[in-house]
Amino acid sequence: MTKLQLGSIPIFKRSVNLSLMLTSSLLFSAPSLAVQCDSLPIWDDGTSYNGGAQVQWQSSAYQANWWNLNANPVNHSEPYQEWSLIGACDAGGTNAAPSVTITSPASNAQLASGNQVTFSALAEDSDGEVREVIFELQGAQLAVLSSAPYQVTWLTESGNYELVVTAIDDKGASTQSAQTFSVVDASNQPPVVTLTSSKTRVSVGDSVQFTAEPQTRMVPLARLNLVSMVH
After folding, report:
1. How many CB atoms lie within 10 A of CB 174?
2. Where is the Cadherin domain (predicted)?
3. Kind of pairing, strands 150-155 and 140-145?
4. pLDDT tens digits along 100-113
5. Are 143 and 152 in contact (CB under 8 A)?
6. Distance, CA of 171 to chain centre
7. Which of helix, strand or coil describes residue 6?
8. In a 3-state reduction of DSSP, which class is residue 12?
9. How far is 213 from 174, CA to CA, in rounded Å?
10. What is the 3 state secondary structure string of 181-198?
11. Is the pTM of this model over 0.70?
């Protein structure tokens, strides 16, 4: 530290100004630039990464802090976690998210319990390829599919459900589609009866024969009543 002498006030002032400039530079760092991600590999949950490895995932670049496996960078990039966020990928190579549509079951469908049903979806990516499609029912994972057709079977149980299907493309962008449906107890549902007549047009005094065909799959039909109504 320089000893200040009488008359050296200007030097003292310059020292204070320099100190303030250094402090300001520490408090206000320049904003980080966008990262060029074209050369970075896509993060893969089945690949192990050593410390220092860099990847891209969901339009951002990350660097591994230490060896890790199956640690999604998006969920593991807080302080003292496996990854550090480098920055957002350069928007010049913006990646379009994939599209996904649930084709079965229909929205608000009512299904019978005790049956095998097939959940199906269509997934496409306009500027790349679909990497995987994930089926989840009430938050529980049913299947992860890497190629079409995107279908999974399920044995129905009574209740109200939400099916969520997530499509992820080769650059990590994702899109979700959801569908709600219900499953009812089919152990004793009302029977269905088909009624036909021998004539479609009748006159007073004509004889008409009616035929009733009951349909019930679960239990035998106990009784069938025909009620005559005259208008």
Report:
1. 15
2. 106-193
3. unpaired
4. 999 999 999 999 99
5. yes
6. 16
7. coil
8. helix
9. 51
10. EEEECCCCCCCEEEEEEC
11. no
In a 13 Å sphere around the CA of 100, the CA atoms on its Cβ side amount to 30
On the question of pLDDT at 88 being above 50, the answer is yes
Residue type, 71: A
Please give the single-letter amino acid code of residue 207.
S
Give me the numbers of helices (H) and strands (E) for the chain, helices first please: 1, 15
Q: Two tokens at 7? A: 């008359």
pLDDT in tens, 115-167: 999 999 999 998 889 999 999 999 999 999 999 999 999 999 999 999 999 99
Which residues on neighbouring strands pair with residue 180, listed in sequence order? 162
AA identity, residue 29: S
**Inter-residue contact 172 to 57 (CB < 8 Å):** yes
More confident call, 1 vs 157: 157
136, with CB counted inside 10 A (0-12, 13-18, 19+), is middle
